[in-house]
């Protein structure tokens, strides 16, 4: 999964998702999925560069289900196994947006990874997208990914947003540990987020409702 050029706007991401999910519904399909990547952060109100929309699924047949529903859209990469990244992967262009659907077939005991193990399936929020409720991976998991990649144009907006709106410190700590970030790096993140308090029940409810 990767970025594909100029940064997308929120309305671009929402349009691609709504069209995709409407096509799935028309096909009578309802695969389990999560939105990850920078698109997930944008949907949660973080203003950062977004190149494409990443959809994580659990099974290869779910990639094929998305592919069948999107058969009328340009196929940029036909569903295939990528041995170097252990992904079954497809890419389509939906309303001018590159939309990538993929498994990530690696194992971990941690719940703190964005695309691997149980983390994305347990730690998500629901965002309203047109007539759909879209499950989006939580920011704590995305932040750890961006810190590992050392992309300051991504992790700085995430840190600013989480400092202002709250976060789950235990989940973030597990995510940073799962990514193997150094003690010094984790302490730096803690210092950046010190003014924020853990997400309150009201804030958590609002966030889950996409407000």
Looking at this protein, list some descriptive labels:
211 residues; Beta Polymerase, domain 2
Question: How are the SSEs ordered, and which strands pair?
Answer:
Elements: H1 10-26, E1 33-36, H2 37-43, E2 53-57, H3 60-69, E3 75-82, E4 87-94, E5 97-102, H4 119-122, E6 124-129, E7 132-137, H5 139-149, H6 152-165, H7 169-178, H8 183-193, H9 201-208
Parallel strand pairs: 2-5
Antiparallel strand pairs: 1-2, 3-4, 4-5, 6-7
Helix pairs in contact: 5-6, 5-7
Secondary-structure class: alpha+beta
Helix content: 40-55%
Q: Flag low-confidence runs.
A: 200-206
Order of SSEs: HEHEHEEEHEEHHHHH
Give the CA-CA distance, first to last residue.
Answer: 28 Å
Describe the largest sheet. 5 strands, mixed
Name of the top-level CATH class: Alpha Beta
The number of helical elements comes to 9
**Name of the CATH architecture:** 2-Layer Sandwich
**Global Rg:** 17 Å
User: Domains counted in the coordinates: how many?
Assistant: 1
Strand content: 15-25%
Mean pLDDT: 92
CATH topology: Beta Polymerase, domain 2
What spatial form do the alpha-carbon principal axes imply?
globular
How are the strands of the biggest sheet laid out side by side? Answer: 1-2-5-4-3
Number of strands: 7
């Amino acid at each position: 999964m990767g970025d594909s050029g100029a940064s997308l706007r929120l309305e671009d991401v929402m349009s691609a998702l709504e069209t995709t999910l409407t096509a799935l519904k028309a096909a009578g399909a309802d695969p389990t999925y999560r939105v990850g990547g920078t698109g997930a952060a944008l949907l949660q109100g973080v203003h950062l560069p977004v190149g494409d929309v990443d959809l994580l699924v659990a099974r290869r047949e779910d990639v094929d289900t998305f592919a069948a529903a999107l058969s009328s859209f340009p196929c940029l990469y036909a569903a295939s196994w990528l041995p170097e990244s252990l992904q079954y992967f497809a890419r389509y262009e939906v309303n001018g947006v590159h939309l990538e659907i993929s498994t990530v077939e690696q194992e971990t005991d941690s719940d703190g990874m964005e695309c691997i193990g149980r983390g994305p399936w347990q730690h998500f929020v629901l965002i309203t997208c047109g007539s759909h409720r879209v499950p989006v991976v939580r920011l704590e998991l995305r932040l750890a990914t961006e810190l590992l990649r050392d992309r300051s144009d991504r992790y700085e907006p995430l840190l600013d947003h989480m400092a202002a709106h709250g976060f789950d410190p235990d989940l973030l700590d597990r995510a940073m540990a799962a990514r193997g970030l150094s003690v010094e790096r984790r302490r730096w993140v803690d210092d950046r987020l010190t003014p924020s308090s853990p997400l309150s029940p009201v804030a958590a409810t609002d966030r889950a409702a996409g407000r």
